[in-house]
Design goal:
six-stranded antiparallel sheet, alpha+beta, about 25% strand, five-stranded antiparallel sheet, 2 domains, single chain, about 40% helix, 4 helices, minor pseudopilin epsh fold
Length: about 210
């Protein structure tokens, strides 16, 4: 009886040890999985804005602005209408001239040319005919305080920064989209040949 009892006790203890080893093993695997997930997340950030100088968000926004300017220019020629581009410090909007009301208005009939807001961390710089334009953020509070007559007066005096004429001509310009930290930028500009070009991404402060 005693020998049998002793043998049973030894087998029971061995089972408990095996169970504890399995439990420790699964815990280690779980930790490895967590480390792997963190590594993948860090790799994603590096790919977005990496040591190679690529900034996918900046490149995407500059490509969109470039294509929209070309699209508005083609639209102006096809429809023999005058278009324009108005820029704030962090947004831009295409407008068209209304000959009946004699005012520049938003292109409400074409969603592609709607007002665009840049993502956080990006801003615009604009040079028109060799002169840098001071771009301001819209003051919605000040606008709300103005009377209807004052708003209509401002609307009639409103002019876009860049003119896109019905014959395809453009106001000479250089529109730069830049990231503030770290400093990276892409410039879209008109050329002497009448084309519009997008430059490569540049790193570092402007001179």
């Amino acid at each position: 009886m005693n020998r049998s009892s002793t043998r049973w006790t030894w087998r029971d203890t061995s089972t408990e040890r095996f169970g504890r080893r399995r439990q420790r093993g699964f815990t280690l695997i779980e930790l490895m999985v967590v480390v792997l997930i963190i590594g993948l997340m860090a790799a994603g950030i590096v790919l977005s804005v990496g040591v190679t100088g690529r900034d996918t968000e900046l490149e995407r926004e500059s490509e969109r602005a470039f294509e929209l300017i070309r699209y508005a220019r083609e639209k102006a020629e096809l429809q023999t209408r005058e278009f324009g581009l108005y820029c704030g410090d962090r947004e831009y909007q295409f407008v068209t001239f209304d000959p009946r009301k004699q005012i520049w208005r938003p292109v409400d009939e074409d969603d592609a040319l709607r007002a665009r807001q840049l993502p956080e961390g990006l801003k615009l710089r604009l040079i028109v005919e060799g002169r840098e334009i001071v771009l301001k953020a819209p003051d919605e509070k000040a606008k709300a305080k103005k009377s209807k007559e004052e708003q209509e007066k401002e609307l009639r005096a409103f002019l876009p920064h860049i003119m896109i004429f019905s014959n395809g001509d453009l106001t000479p310009f250089a529109l730069t989209i830049e990231r503030e930290d770290p400093v990276r930028s892409v410039t879209i500009s008109s050329t002497d040949k009448g084309t519009v070009e997008a430059g490569k991404l540049i790193e570092g402060n402007r001179t």
